[in-house]
Amino acid sequence: MGRGLAYLAFAGTTWGTTGAAVDIIYRSSDLGPMAVSFWRYVSGLALLLAARAFLPNRPARSSAPRVARPRLRGQRLLLLVGTGIGLAVFQTAYFGAVQETGLAVGTIVTLGAGPVFTAIGGRLLLNERIGRGGVLAVCGALAGLAVLVLGDQAGTVDPLGVGLALLSAAGYAVATLLARWTGRRGGGGEDPYSLTMWSFGIGAAVLLPLAWAEGIIPHTDHLGRILLLMAYVAAVTTALAYPLYFAGVAAVRATTAAVVMLIEPVSAAILAVTLLGEHLTAATIAGTLLLLTAVAGLAVAESRLPAPATA
């Protein structure tokens, strides 16, 4: 349990620095969100493939012959492709939100809306119960988002950036709901490490033509800084943080994991103010507190519901 909490805290803290690193890349070069996401996925995939050679062999599965039923093959294909595209939208739209409305607001809206979209999608598409506490948490999150956007009189919140953050949250929700759906139907046998690699590969393939059109090679007088920041994003916040996150989630309750991961928007907001010189208005702070409190409440509400039966 203690090790799992440490893994989650590390993953959340490092993910909170991703937006700051990308914001500095934007200020130091002409790279855009498509190109940054593409290079992150390609570099992260290369590091994960290299690291897999040093991982211990997984326990052998049953020696009985496996029957590759068409239904399971279709579910696996949908899981891999859908997760890859969902994560590509999640990552690229998030980087775009950071570019448009800043690190603090982009991160808070994305990570606050993601669990809310997942809960609503689970209720509408998977017939999962939300419960009275979950409904109150969703309403609280929407209220926090409204305060964050409508109460901003200083112009620090950009509507386009908020829209991109919501699109990013939708991509996250799609990937999460696909994993839930395939798991409930008996088709979720893909281990997290392989799923991560497949998702990175598919995401990179989807982003390649868009990144090429945007400009895939940086033109800058600070090439060393760009390469160093991209190496950090690929190695620490991608190839290292993702496996640690999956290991942490496997060791602690889902509710505990959801609450611990709130460290990500908090660390992002601290970096935005101290490192990037962003300003947080009273409305931004109030909306942030409402949004994050609602997410924590949603996690608690879901923990009190019975687990859904699998097919």
Description:
The chain is an all-alpha fold and 311 residues long. The chain has 11 helices and no strands. Helices cover 77% and strands 0% of the residues.
DSSP helical segment count:
11
State the distance separating the first and last CA atoms.
29 Å
Query: The biggest beta sheet, please?
Result: none
- On the 0 to 100 scale, the average pLDDT is 79
Order of helices and strands: HHHHHHHHHHH
Q: State the total count of DSSP E strands.
A: 0
Taken from the alpha-carbon principal axes, the silhouette is globular
Note poorly predicted spans.
Answer: 59-68
Please state the structural category: mainly alpha
> Rounded to an integer, what's the Rg over CA atoms?
19 Å
Task: Kindly state the percentage of residues in helix.
Answer: over 70%
Strand content: under 5%
In brief:
By secondary structure, the chain is an all-alpha fold. The chain has helices at 2-28, 33-52, 70-101, 103-125, 131-150, 159-184, 192-214, 223-251, 254-260, 263-274, 282-303.
Task: Provide the descriptors you would attach to this structure in a database record.
311 residues, 11 helices, 0% strand, mainly alpha
Topology:
Elements: H1 2-28, H2 33-52, H3 70-101, H4 103-125, H5 131-150, H6 159-184, H7 192-214, H8 223-251, H9 254-260, H10 263-274, H11 282-303
